[in-house]
Amino acid sequence: MKMQPVLKRYSLDFKDRTPAADRRRRMVWSQRSRHIVQLAFALFIIGGSVAHYMAAEDGSTASIDALCPFGGIETLWTFLSSQGATIPKTHLSNIILLIGLVAGTLIAGGAFCGWVCPFGAVQDLLNGIRRRLHIKPVELPTRLDAILRYGRFITLAVILYQTISSVKLLFAEVDPYRTLFGLGWLFEFNPATSWRAYLVAVSVLVASFFVERAWCRYLCPLGGIISVLSNFSLLRIRREESSCKSCAICTRPCPVKLNVHDAKIVSSNCIGCLQCVDSCPRHGALEVKLAPAWLPIKSHASEN
Ligand code: SF4
Ligand code: SF4
User: Fold this and answer.
1) Is 116 in the pocket of ligand 1 (CB under 6 A)?
2) Is residue 76 part of a domain?
3) What is the residue-averaged pLDDT of the chain?
4) 3 occurs within a structural domain
């Protein structure tokens, strides 16, 4: 194998010091780091699910339900209103993870979605496969996209209403993240009882293959909460108008379709993947900065 193409492919050709090569290196390495972190969290959750199925006694290892911060939101009302009791299948661990998620979001915005969430990682993987197959993504009209984003809050409201009124994790039965990473489809495949879960999971995965991060953008209840909290995060991506030449190169790679090039601070729907920052050709035009909500910066990126 020839050395030069390999070096170029992995952006290890450090002799090439042109700004374009520097930018390519930055992009490759920051995205590679992100994918490694995503993979590590996904393997952690998969390992937990395998251990749970292999355990000799039920309850001796944590199930996937105990490892989800959204379980903390579902059980919070019961926890607060009944002196520490939790909804069946949730635990104190869910509340602790929720506290960690809130703290992390107040510091780094939606980075949980871009770097940690295994279901986000699966959607990135599907997007990568689609690109390799040279299949064009489906781009929804701007107005429809903006309306569909409210779907996350509708899902959230329905889940909270159902969970609080029934004191059961009803959403867990069709949650695509739980269906996929809980590994029930592998260890106890049962279409007769779980067909709804399989149908929802397959539909979401197919939609996310054609529409980048479809679940995150339109349906994920946790993503909805994170986007609200991100309005108060300390770190935000800011665009310096004096350095920016409005080329819109930064907007192209955005997986959640935000208009980065006409914002002063990117939208709170940002998942912190940093692809816009890495792709920007102008030094200092787009940077992650300390930009909490109380700083006097008014304009935010429009959606889509
Ligand atoms: S929006 Fe939901 S599914 Fe998507 S990355 Fe965030 S938490 Fe995960
Ligand atoms: S605005 Fe930038 S960091 Fe945020 S999701 Fe889009 S590309 Fe990623």
Assistant:
1) no
2) yes
3) 90
4) no
Instruction: Yes or no: say if 99 and 216 are a contact pair by the CB < 8 Å rule.
Output: no
Is 2 a member of any domain? Answer: no
What total number of domains does the chain contain?
1
Length of the chain: 304
Residue 8 resides in a domain: no
**What distance in angstroms lies between residue 55's CA and the mean position of ligand 2's atoms?**
40
- Percent of the chain having pLDDT more than 70? 90
The protein residue with its alpha carbon nearest to ligand 1, atom 5, reads: 113
Spacing, Cα 223 to ligand 1 middle (Å)? 5
pLDDT band at 283 (very low <50, low <70, confident <90, very high): confident
Helices (H), 55-183: 69-81, 92-108, 111, 118-132, 142-148, 151-166, 176-181
Domain, as residue range, for 56: 18-304
pLDDT in tens, 178-194: 999 999 999 999 999 99
Question: By the 8 A CB rule, do 253 and 287 touch?
Answer: no
Split at pLDDT 50, 70, 90, the class of 204 is very high
Give dist(CA 255, CA 272) in Å, integer. 10
Q: How far, in Å, from the CA of 2 to the mean position of ligand 1?
A: 40
> Measured from the CA of 260, which atom of ligand 2 is nearest?
1
Which ligand number lies closest to the CA of residue 121?
A: 1
